[in-house]
Specification:
576 residues; alpha+beta; Beta-Lactamase; 5 domains; 43% helix; 24% strand; nucleotide-binding; kinase; phosphoprotein; two-component regulatory system; transmembrane
Length: 576
């Protein structure tokens, strides 16, 4: 039988002593490690705070000296004394160094700032903008942008970030200056409030001035007595101003009045004016008597005259028209001492009115003719409807359709012109061959047999446009060639590629158009002939054509010489 022996007391004691010795040795090693850690922490803090400028390191090749370039004392003191925040970032955007003002802005200890990602201190709403700013700053040195910092209490502070990259020992870093804009924002807000208060005060003053008749009278009195101030106002006016005394002598004419009426100042007396007194006419072209001039009427009646139009005929020039407002001038006692007149050149307005009057006359005439013919044809149809004469009925129906088509064309021209004037023209674009459009259009010309349409150019040119509208333009060009060049029996339609466009030209061999009339052709209501020839039309065809082409973003024009025919052309975008 085997008997298990229990370890003796001495052997257990030896084991305990060995364990204690091992534990004591481990404690000594732990203590030494703790001392080394504290020493390392002290060294790091000394390096961070700038107390250490260099390190001596023992290596395989002996002791070596390492200078801490980032610990330059003067630079560090300068940075710490700054009133604005400053930080140095690595190429990933992490903070390598930050000064105390930056930590103060964040309301955090300095040791909790270093090593953090810079954009983590930006408000969450603008963190993305911060990252984009960092990325852009590497390519654009000196970049600045306003963002909001978030302090430890979640308080947002407006700051201006100024970023500039630099390189040191082959490594790239980013210098960031953080300027607190809190006070500036407060001042801006205060300034806005003050401006608002000032605006309200100005509005209040304006309302008061409106209701204070005495103030207005005082200012009016000052206006008349302060000649220098009055002159400055009058000389900058866009209207002509002239003042006459009771004898009709011109005592003042501002620069615009001198320009419009050909008035000049005397070289030896600045208060004397040389007034050519060009003949004045009424709107019916009869001479205007001196007594009926608005200023003479204002002086004689003591009442103001408004918007009185007269014509002025300078020698060797076309007559122009002015609109005059005249009022009597009174002294403090209410006695009339002269008159003042303001006037503007309204020649274009008068031309527009005349054009409208001419258009109404032309439109009335153009509509009356086909309507009268249509009415006569319908009356004859009604009279002979039971006579059983097919040939007569056919002829009357044809005349009726012809007259109705003419009325329809005139009305459509009016409606199209109205749409274009109001900007309501719509396009329905598609791709189509120009050659097909030329072949399909103008059948009325081909059927008549008096004119031959000749196509010139490639037949596979495809454009992207509104086919119906371009058909309308082409028909208008061909109709004009037929109408104004009846002796040109051949009308050529040339199509060529010009860059990214197709250029379509309608060519006739007619009498041509005078060069001075070419700029007016595409205006509303303009008709070329003024020789008394009986050519119908409202003067809207070329205007409508021009608006259609311009709506396509293209060009339209005309080349013509007297006796050598005309070329009307337009461009269209090629299909892609």
């Amino acid at each position: 039988m085997t008997v298990e022996q229990t370890p003796s007391y001495d052997s257990r004691q030896d084991e305990i002593d060995a364990l204690k010795a091992s534990l004591a040795e481990a404690n000594e090693q732990l203590l030494e490690t703790r001392y080394r850690l504290e020493e390392a922490n002290d060294m790091i803090e000394a390096i961070r705070s700038g107390e250490v400028d260099a390190l001596v390191v023992k290596g395989d090749n002996g002791h070596q000296l390492y200078t801490l370039k980032s610990a330059d004392a003067a630079y560090r003191i300068f940075i710490e004394q700054m009133t604005t925040g400053a930080a140095t970032l690595d190429d990933k955007g992490f903070i390598l160094y930050a000064n105390s003002p930056f930590a103060t802005l964040l309301d955090q200890p300095l040791e909790k700032v270093a090593g953090r990602f810079f954009c983590d201190f930006i408000s969450s709403q603008e963190a993305g903008e911060c990252i984009k700013l960092m990325e852009t700053a590497w390519k654009q040195p000196g970049l600045q942008q306003e963002l909001a910092l978030t302090s430890s209490f979640r308080k947002e502070l407006p700051v201006l970030l100024s970023l500039k990259p630099f390189q040191l020992d082959g490594n790239y870093f980013m210098s960031v200056i953080i300027t607190d804009l809190t006070d500036q924002k407060k001042q801006q807000q205060l300034l806005r409030e003050k401006n608002q208060q000032l605006l309200e005060a100005q509005l209040t003053a304006r309302d008061l001035n409106t209701n204070l008749e005495q103030t207005v009278q005082q200012r009016t009195k000052e206006l008349y007595t302060n000649q220098e101030r009055l002159t400055r106002i009058l000389e900058t006016m866009a209207e002509g101003v002239e003042i006459l005394d009771l004898d009709g002598t011109l005592t003042y004419a501002n620069p615009m009045a001198q320009k419009i009426l050909g008035i000049t100042q005397s070289s030896d007396d600045s208060s004397h004016y040389n007034n050519p007194k060009w003949p004045a006419f009424k709107l019916d072209d009869s001479p205007l008597p001196d007594a009926e001039h608005p200023q003479a009427v204002a002086q004689s009646s003591g009442k103001s005259v408004y918007d009185f139009e007269i014509g002025i005929q300078p020698p060797g020039r076309q007559m122009f028209y002015i609109s005059i407002n005249a009022a009597p001038i009174r002294d403090e006692s209410g006695n009339i001492t002269g008159s003042i007149a303001t006037f503007t050149d309204v020649t274009q307005r008068r031309i527009s009115i005349q054009q409208k009057d001419d258009f109404i006359s032309v439109a009335s005439h153009e509509l009356r003719t086909p309507i009268t013919a249509l009415k006569a044809s319908l009356q004859l149809l009604e009279r002979f409807k039971n006579d059983g004469n097919p040939e007569l009925m056919h002829r009357l129906i044809g005349q009726s359709n012809k007259s109705l088509n003419k009325v329809s064309i005139l009305v459509n021209d009016l409606l199209d012109a109205k749409k274009m004037t109001e900007g309501h023209l719509q396009l329905n674009t598609s791709d189509f061959l120009i050659a097909e459009l030329v072949n399909e259009c103008c059948q009325h010309v081909r059927v008549g047999g008096d004119f031959q349409l000749v196509y010139e150019g490639e037949k596979n040119i495809t454009v992207h446009a509104d086919k119906d509208k371009i058909d309308q333009v082409l028909v208008n060009f061909v109709n004009n060639a037929v109408k104004y060049a009846p002796s040109s029996k051949e009308i050529r339609i040339r199509v060529v590629v010009d860059g990214g466009f197709a250029r379509v030209t309608v060519i006739d061999n007619g009498p041509g158009i005078a060069s001075e009339r070419l700029p007016e052709l595409f205006k509303r209501y303009y008709r070329v002939h003024n020789d008394g020839s009986n050519i119908s039309g409202l003067g809207l065809g070329l205007y409508i054509s021009a608006e259609i082409i311009r709506k396509h973003g293209c060009e339209i024009g005309v080349n013509s010489q007297l006796g050598r025919g005309s070329e009307f052309w337009f461009t269209l975008p090629l299909a892609t």
